[in-house]
Amino acid sequence: MRKNLIVGQSGGPTAVINCSLYGVVTGAYREEQIEKVYGMVNGIDGFLKGKKLDFQTMWEDGSLEKLRTTPGAFLGSCRYKLPEDLTDAVYDDIFAKLEELNVGYFCYIGGNDSMDTVSKLSRVGAARKSDIRFMGVPKTIDNDLVLTDHTPGYGSAARYVAETVREITYDASVYDSKSVTIVEIMGRDAGWLTASSVLAREADRRNPALIYLPEVNFDIDQFIGQVEEAMKEQPNLVVCVSEGIHDAQDKLICEYESETGLDSFGHKMLAGCGKYLEKLVKDRLGCKVRSIELNVCQRCSAAMMSAADQEEAVKAGAFAAASAVAGSTGMMAAFQRQEGEEYSIQCVLRDVNEICNKVKKVPLDWITKEGSDLAPAFMEYVKPLVQGAVQLPIGEDGLPAFVKR
Amino acid sequence: MRKNLIVGQSGGPTAVINCSLYGVVTGAYREEQIEKVYGMVNGIDGFLKGKKLDFQTMWEDGSLEKLRTTPGAFLGSCRYKLPEDLTDAVYDDIFAKLEELNVGYFCYIGGNDSMDTVSKLSRVGAARKSDIRFMGVPKTIDNDLVLTDHTPGYGSAARYVAETVREITYDASVYDSKSVTIVEIMGRDAGWLTASSVLAREADRRNPALIYLPEVNFDIDQFIGQVEEAMKEQPNLVVCVSEGIHDAQDKLICEYESETGLDSFGHKMLAGCGKYLEKLVKDRLGCKVRSIELNVCQRCSAAMMSAADQEEAVKAGAFAAASAVAGSTGMMAAFQRQEGEEYSIQCVLRDVNEICNKVKKVPLDWITKEGSDLAPAFMEYVKPLVQGAVQLPIGEDGLPAFVKR
Q: Among A156, A200, B266, B372, which residue has the least CB neighbours within 10 Å?
C-alpha cells in the first residue's frame, strides 16, 4: 500500500531551508511508494493544531521551482520542544494524526533541536512498533551539527558574511584617519560563521585583520594590545567578533554590559558584544570606532545565496526522502567530503541520537595561536562551500520575486 | 593650450560614487582639450597634503572599467570644510597647487558639503579671474540635494533597503506567534531612504505595514496605537523607521533613550531609535519585538546596486567633465525627469550656490495623512530609480573582485 510523506521546517530560517524542502518534496513525488506529499505548517507545533497543506497543486503548476530561490521558511517554523517523557499524551496525539493522514514517511528540516524531535519521534515509533519512518534534514547557518562535514545554510550565510565584510572593508578605508570597525557576527557556541569572514580578506590586503571566535577565551587586555599592534600596519582596522565570545571564566563579553534572558529552549539571549568593544576601544585608544551588527540578514539573504549551498540543500532533502522509502528511520542526511583534489560531497546517513544536543566547534588547530585569525586549513575547508552566485527571479516590480504559502 | 582635469571624492561613500568617477575620467579622456587626468587622494584635504594620482595607466590597461562595480570611494574621501573667509591662505595654497599641475578643470563628487566646496572655489576663482572651471557631481544615498530630480547613490541604497526589507519580512513571518520587527534606516533630516522601504511591500502583502519618516512629527502614543491596529490584520508586523524621527518639539526619538543614563564608560548610550522603540513596544504591548539597524551596508553594498543608478552616475560624471570643457563653472550636473510615460532623465546644469547647505525633504503630500505610509505618487517617483540588478565581476576566490588604489 502506498503511503504519504509529510515534511516540516523548524527553528530559525536560512537562505536555503526552502531548497531542502524542494528536495524532499520533489524527491518524494519521484518515489512510487509515495502517494501524497503534505507539509506541516509551523512545524510539529502547527501540525498538532491541524495546520497542514498538500503540495499537489504546486507540483503540477511548477511553482515548486520558486522554493529554490525563496528565503525564510515557506511552511512556517516553530520552536517547540517535545517532552522528555516519551509516554506523554502528546505523542499519542502526533501518532494518531500521522496515521489518520496515512503518513509513512516523516521528514523534519532543522538544526540541533529539530534533530531532537526526530530522535524522540523515532524512539516513540520504535516503542510503538510503528512503521512510520522519521528522517532529519540538517539546516543551520551555525554549522554546528556533528557527524556531517557541514550543514546546508552555512555556505550561504558564510557567503553573505564574506561579501558583506569585504564591502565593509572598502567602506572603512575611505578616510585617511585611524579607525576601528567592529563587525559582530552570529554564532553562540561555535565560531564557524565568524570564521568565514576571513574569506573577505583579499590576497594583497590585511582586513579583516583580527577575527575572534567563541572557541578561544577572549581577554580584554590582549585584545586591546592586538588592536594597537594591528593598527601600526593597517590604520583602518576591521575586526570581526562572534556574538558568543567569552572570557576565561566563561562570562560572555556582551554580559559585561547588558543583562541576558533565556529563550524557550533555555539558551542565553545575546546582544551587543560589538557595542561593548566599540566603547572599550574608544575609551582605551581614543580613536574613531564604530560597530556593526550583521543581524538577521545573515540568515535570510537570498541575494547572496551560495550556488553550492543551494545545490547541496536540495540534494540533502531528496536523499532524506529516498532514504525513508528505502527503510531508514531515526537518521539524518549528512555530508561526507570525498578524498581528492576536487571538492565533492556524498550524502550519508547518520544516527540522529548521536547528533542532537551536541555542538561541533571550530577545531582549535584551525585557529592561529594568538587566537585572532584562522589557519589555512580552515580556508581550504570553507572555500568550496561559498562558491557561485545565484540569480534570483525578478518580479514585475523589478525586485526579487519569492513564493508564498 | 591643453589643460589637465583633476577629480576628487568627498563625504560618505555610496555604491556608485566610483561610477561617477568613471564617468568623469572617461569623459575627460574623450575631450581633446584635456591632456592629463588626475585624482585627488582623500579629497581636497589630501590634495592639500600633495596626495594625488594619474589615471593614465588605468585608462590604458582597462582597469578603469572595474570602477563601475567597486563600492567605497576609490580615491579616498575626506570631511573637510573650506573656510568661509574666501581670503584665507588655504585658497592661495589650493590655487597654487592647481596651477602648478596645469589644471583647467576641477570636478568634485559629493553631497551637500562638497557642493559647498565647489561653490567656494568657484567664487574664489572668479575673484582671482582664474580660468579654472569648478564642477560638482552629485552623490548621496540621502537624496536630499535640491534642484535635481534625484541623486546618484540613492537608487542603489533604495534597492538595498527594498530587497533587504523584503527578505526581512520573509524572515519575520516564519513563526505564528505575534511579533514586531523594527527596521532602522539611515536618513537624519530627509526620509527618502526610509520611504524606499515601501518598495519591499508585495502586491498581496501588507509588510512593511508602517513607515515613519522625519518629515512628520513622531508621537509615541499614536505609534503604539498604530502598531496595535496593524497587528490585528498582520500578526508579524514589520515597521520601518528613519534614524532621524523626532517628536513635535524636534527632540530625536533616539535621544529618549540617552536619558536612561550613562554606560560603564561614562558615555551617553548611543543606541538608535530602533532599539528605543523595541523596548517601548515590549513594555507597552508585551509581544515579541526585535530591532534591526541596517547600518553602513546601505551605502556600501555593491551586491544590490541598481543598474539604473549605475548608468546615471556614470552619465552625471561624464556630463560634468564635458560641461567644464564647454565653459561652465560653479555648476552641478543635475537630473531633470522628462515628460512622458516612459522614465527618462536629462542632465542639466544647476548653480551650486543654490544647492549647497539646503536639504530637500520628501514632499508632505507623498506621505499618507496618518504619517505612517507613502502615497502612490512616491512609488511612481522611486520605482524607476531602483531597476535592474548588476552582475559583479567574480575573482579567483569566488567572491566579487573590486579595484584598489
A: B266
Q: Which pLDDT score, from 0 to 100, does residue A153 have? A: 97
Out of B71, B164, B171, the one facing A72 most closely (by C-beta) is B171
Confidence of residue A257 (pLDDT cuts 50, 70, 90): low
The reply to whether ipTM tops 0.90 is yes
Q: What is the pairing mode between strands B345-351 and B331-337?
A: antiparallel
**Which of B72, B297, B398 has its CB closest to that of A164?**
B297
CB burial class (10 A; 0-12, 13-18, 19+) of residue B88? middle
Closest chain B residue to A280, measured at CA: B265
CA distance A287 to A162: 26
Predicted confidence at residue B309, as pLDDT, reads: 98
Whether B142 is catalytic = yes
- pLDDT reading at B261 higher than 60: no
Pick the residue from chain A with its C-alpha nearest to B173: A76
Q: Give pLDDT, residue A349.
A: 98
Q: How confident is the model at residue A270 (pLDDT cuts 50, 70, 90)?
A: very low
- Of the listed ranges A223-227, B39-43, B47-51, B278-282, the one predicted with least confidence: B278-282
pLDDT tens across B138-195, in order?
999 999 999 999 999 999 999 999 999 999 999 999 998 999 999 999 999 999 999 9
State the pLDDT confidence band at B257, using cuts at 50, 70 and 90: low
CB A377 within 8 A of CB A365: yes
- Cα dihedral sign for B274, B276, B280, B286? positive
Predicted pLDDT of residue A260: 40
Sign of CA dihedral A212, A216, A219, A223: negative
Closest-CA distance of chain B to residue A60, Å: 22
Q: Is B266 or A322 the better-scoring residue by pLDDT?
A: A322
Give, in order, the Cα–Cα distances in Å from A129 to each of A85, A89, A123, A125.
18, 17, 10, 6
